[in-house]
């Protein structure tokens, strides 16, 4: 089964995203802190998909992206943002993120965004 690690500081986002990912066929592990995410990553390695909140805790997200990318060049990393801050976007892309997911999202937007990045990653790997 396809695996996903999801970090978001907002409980409602974690709950909704986990349900949507389940419908898409993902086994998802959710985290409410970037520290817990990093600890799990260190113990279990990188999954197929990672979704990280760029606003979670204010620090550590670019480092988490780099850590995932170092462990697994093929893991798809999507970072969720509340606003389109070009500086944040560039830092996350340079760190290795595949793309962004804008919050708040609806089911169609969530699925569509992930499908774009997952398809692009498959084409790049081929």
From TrEMBL:
InterPro entries assigned to the protein according to its UniProt record, in alphabetical order: CheY-like_superfamily, Sig_transdc_resp-reg_receiver
Record-given protein name: Response regulator
Entry-linked Pfam families: Response_reg
Listed GO biological process terms: phosphorelay signal transduction system
Residue ranges of every copy of the Response regulatory domain listed in the record: 3-118
Family matches, as SMART domains: REC
